[in-house]
Fold this protein.
Amino acid sequence: MNGLKTEAPQYNSNKPILSAANINHQQNSLDDVVTINTLQAEYPHLFTKQQLSWLLKTRHKNGLDQLGAILKISRKLYIKKSIFIDWFLEQKANNS
């Protein structure tokens, strides 16, 4: 043959599986993408800039990365607001 690989791409099992509960997140809208500053300005009673920065910095540990709530483009982080808010509302206090 011509030496080119013709294998089909492998399925990445690390990606979250879509369900009926989160199918609305498939609607790609730039209105849903915000920066830390924008989200903090919209909800100053809930978040400080430092809190949001920490949540994004620890996104691999807290689950935001796996949910697809954070976009990293050219070393800048963006938040998919609808996914982030769903994640936030699902958090529970730790009794320890």
